[in-house]
Amino acid sequence: MKFEILKDNLKNGLNIVERATGKNLTLPILNNVLIETKENFINLVCTDLEIAIVSKNLAKIEKEGKIVAPTKLLLNFISLLPNKKITVFLKNKNLFIECENFKSQIQTYNPEDFPIIPQIKTTEFIEIENKIFCEGASQVVEVTSPSQIKPELSGVYFSFFDNSLKMVGTDSFRLAEKKIELENKISQEFSFILPSKTTRELISILGDKNGKIKIFSSPNLALFDFESKEISSFVQITSKIIEGEYPNYQEIIPKKWKTKIILKREDFLNHIKTASLFSGRINEIKLSVQPKENRVSIFAKTPEIGESQSSLFGKIEGEKLETSFNYKFLVDGLLNIKSSEVIFELSNGEEPGVLKPVGDLNYIYVLMPIKSY
Amino acid sequence: MKFEILKDNLKNGLNIVERATGKNLTLPILNNVLIETKENFINLVCTDLEIAIVSKNLAKIEKEGKIVAPTKLLLNFISLLPNKKITVFLKNKNLFIECENFKSQIQTYNPEDFPIIPQIKTTEFIEIENKIFCEGASQVVEVTSPSQIKPELSGVYFSFFDNSLKMVGTDSFRLAEKKIELENKISQEFSFILPSKTTRELISILGDKNGKIKIFSSPNLALFDFESKEISSFVQITSKIIEGEYPNYQEIIPKKWKTKIILKREDFLNHIKTASLFSGRINEIKLSVQPKENRVSIFAKTPEIGESQSSLFGKIEGEKLETSFNYKFLVDGLLNIKSSEVIFELSNGEEPGVLKPVGDLNYIYVLMPIKSY
């Protein structure tokens, strides 16, 4: 194997695939990157067996080949080199890297020991504007359950139907749903549950990139394929999907409300954070809504610490009402919403509340109140 | 007690003193701030018994008094308030804080339980431009010993003599000395060893502030007094000093060299970092100096990983030479130097090397080589 590549291109590719490299002690081969030359590209591949990331980068291939080398060492070394042409070649099972006055040789491993990356069979895909897709995913992924007790809640539910994609996350205390309109009506509806980890990686790797993302799905895999036109590189993220059926979450979204508040999002967040300092073990803060005065008061009290009370003003419809929430759930919801004003729909003490951005019908965040006894 | 103060002034003061608040489980009173009104100022005081930080802030005092309240709760609460006037008063042992639509009450503790902050007796002091003082201290403090085996090496040595201040740090593997010229000749020489923790706090709190710092010293205390003219506030940091005699460090500073290299600092750092990836358990990297070619080559090798070799060019005087260093010590030294070029004076394998900035005679960094067997 021998190829030439610009330092920054190799660094960018390694930076992307490195995210699937863990510190795997039982299977040390997973701490490595598979480097493979194919036509005018070098493919970099890392996997943790749950997710596989491939980065295809344009290079001048002088001799084809395939090797496995430690990801982090390679990335750290390449990062420190000047941004010039790098020559990489294999000799006596050592990877030689040369760039200006720098020379190194790195021990490699047998590519036969590297796990085989599963390939998706289908050629059908859905194409979505990448930034819209990643932003939507980021609005639901932090609401998924961190525990594995109900595995289906530990991932994001992607449901393609008619001409829309719905993304859903819930941990059974709160739920977020984001709807994205597709350019074309799809022929057959389908859905899958993507592990939260994969979803977060997708957002981190691709979140700021312009272009379209292609989504492929099979009974046990999902593939996200992104081409960066500017630097002639490709990223492919293949992930296992979570088996099981996603709960019929539509049932828990309230259809009515008793009191509807419109508040400035930043202000509301600030008042909640202030009260949170005085909340106790169960993170309880109390909201008291006074429609006549267009006022929302927020209370919190813990005998050993003290208490806090603050008021903010907005537009209020409906009835006077008192209710309590876990402040963390409210904060998470408000952070997922990007609009400057927010709608909060409330019912009686046992029904969930619903947060929505003002001026955007495509996002809702549902959260359970704390029941008072 | 009752006073009015602008939110940002109270927040700034708390932010400064909070640095002396730890998570003290055995003496929970230390997690609190003492608030005391005096003439037109409120004094905020925190201490961990090693160091005491006082922040004096201009306020409108309506009723004098003294209380103790949880530092972090207070700081977090004040930080979230709008930047308006805050009214603070004591009622039934609760501290009431009011600001616009925010009201809170915080449980307080008996100020009699708060430790007494030791007062320095002397009125004599040395005055130094604060930024110069802090920058100098930051160039030596990270070289002090983290262990307490030789307590005198766990602090920075400040030595005032004639018209100069010398600051020294060493962990016995390397040593840094910074000299600052004083405006006036001092009448009587004196010195003290300041704990590294205090030195770091001084740099963090005052490092970016314009003005002069006054230094007071007594047999067991040092006091650093800084007045910020812009916002009419004062910071006083009182610290215990370390008992014991500082070693006669001048002895180990080499007076001669065999080979002298001048290199671009950033380049040298980059080459060392690159080699460091291939260094082994004792962090060894090898330097080979070729005066004829004006070349320095850097090698590192670990059989299980691989090896690296790189060359950089500079001005070289003296003899051809090979020597080895712990790369961490070299990196630390180069990071402490701010000039774009650096002088590295080397002798034979057992003598320490000396790093100096080009164009500044007031800083030296001495480091032991790794002896080859």
**Rg of chain A computed from alpha carbons, rounded to a whole number of angstroms:** 25 Å
- What is the domain total for the residues of chain A? 3
Number of helices of chain A: 6
Oligomeric status:
homodimer
* Number of distinct beta strands of chain A: 26
Helix and strand composition category of chain A: alpha+beta
Specify the overall morphology of chain A. Answer: elongated
CATH architecture of the largest domain in chain A, by name, is Roll
Q: Report the uncertain regions of chain A.
A: none
Question: What is the share of helical residues of chain A?
Answer: 10-25%
**Quick one: biggest sheet of chain A?**
9 strands, antiparallel
Brief description of this entry?
The structure is a homodimer of 373-residue chains. Chain A has 373 residues and is an alpha+beta fold.
